[in-house]
Amino acid sequence: MTTKLTQLKQDFTEGLSQISRFWGFPKGMGSIFAVLYLSPTPLSLDEVVQATGLTKGAISTEVRTLARMGLVHRSSKLADRKDYYEAEDDFYKSIRSILKERQNSEFDSAIRSVRETLEKLEAGTVTGNAAELDFIYKRVRALQEFFNAIDGLTKAVIKLESLGMTNVTKILSVLK
Amino acid sequence: MTTKLTQLKQDFTEGLSQISRFWGFPKGMGSIFAVLYLSPTPLSLDEVVQATGLTKGAISTEVRTLARMGLVHRSSKLADRKDYYEAEDDFYKSIRSILKERQNSEFDSAIRSVRETLEKLEAGTVTGNAAELDFIYKRVRALQEFFNAIDGLTKAVIKLESLGMTNVTKILSVLK
DNA sequence: TACTACGTTTAGTAATTACTAAACATTCTA
DNA sequence: TAGAATGTTTAGTAATTACTAAACGTAGTA
User: Fold this and answer.
1) Among A110, A113, B10, B46, which is most buried by a count of CB atoms within 10 Å?
2) B57 CA, C12 C1': separation in Å?
3) B24-77 pLDDT tens trace
């Protein structure tokens, strides 16, 4: 039983859409990436419209966030006003730019709020039952330390020349 | 300038809510966890209702998913029909059970769909332009390899006796 | 057995998010 | 300069998700 190439592409795209949703991104983002990833040549906005069934508007905005994450690249041909988009195919590179992106995001500000909580506790300016205060202080500090560890890890990954199989293998070997 | 303990708790809870949303979970989940995490003693459902402002129903369901992820534990006192909930305070442990949880989830099925794509391509049962087929095969295979690497990593982490600062430090040292 | 104290489920609502359609801005071309 | 070809923004809609309120189930207690 044979499969048509177009069908295969569609299934693949469907799969990436689900993965995208799983990670909390719009499923349209997944399908845009899939289409670009399977294309041997960069595609214009209208070609992506055609291939995904989404509208120009949607693609315009989602391609921008994909580009911010380093998952697609925008290029242009001389003497052609169209923009062209192509997928990054080095996922390890993408991971690094996604992490970099996230550093400046809301996540960091939320984490900062935990640190502020901790600082208030350390400054001794919080009024309330002493035993409870002590308990809460320990817990908040533990959380803070955990965040610091995560933060250290992501920063280390960002700084790498390249993540990639070699490094993954190294990590695996230490974990054994 | 001093802060009331209740205010501090509220701010902390607010912070965790944002973090929860950032990771694609309901913000209510974050606040439930925060309340439990700051409590020296396990809390009953009604106490959580009181502390979070959510309804019994919401808490009932969200506490269940928190428990599945190993972030909270349910316990009961003898001769007391109430359930009591308390937060896991070993986050490394939680990471491991979250990863374990995710293994059987939709994510895996989506990844499986990529593998299926690859298998069809390898079986040579796909009809279409040969050059394009070859290109697509290479790309899909690369993605598959990437997923395998990730999968290997998560499995390794799951298998660990315990993740924790020691291991994080080890990883960091390899990445330098 | 009826009543109470709980947790769960369910059906509906509110809030959020993803997307569309169309107006708009910009740049090139005639 | 007018017109066409492009990408972006915006205002509204559809779809999804988080939550509420209240009915329900169950088990313990009088």
Assistant:
1) A110
2) 14
3) 899 999 999 999 999 999 999 999 999 999 999 999 999 999 999 999 999 998
Domain boundaries, chain A: 5-89, 92-175
Residue B136, both tokens: 């697509």
| pLDDT tens readout for residues B144-157 | 999 999 999 999 99
Interchain CB distance below 8 Å, B125 and A152: no
- Report the sign of the C-alpha dihedral through residues B59, B60, B61, B64, in that order: positive
CA atoms within 13 A on the CB side of A78: 0
- Please tell me the distance from the alpha carbon of residue B53 to that of residue B59, in angstroms, as a whole number: 10
Is A24 touching B (CB cutoff 8 A)?
yes
Which residue from A137, A26, A103, A34 is spatially nearest to B12, judged by alpha carbons?
A: A137
Find the farthest-apart pair of alpha carbons in chain A and give their distance in angstroms, rounded.
Answer: 73
Q: Is A41 on the interface with B (CB under 8 A)?
A: no
Inter-residue contact B17 to B34 (CB < 8 Å): yes
Distance of CA A95 to the CA centre of its chain: 7
Helix (H) or strand (E) holding B73: strand B72-76
Rounded Cα distance, B176 and B174, in Å: 6
pLDDT tens-digit series, residues A126-152: 999 999 999 999 999 999 999 999 999
* CATH architecture of the domain formed by A5-89: Orthogonal Bundle (1.10)
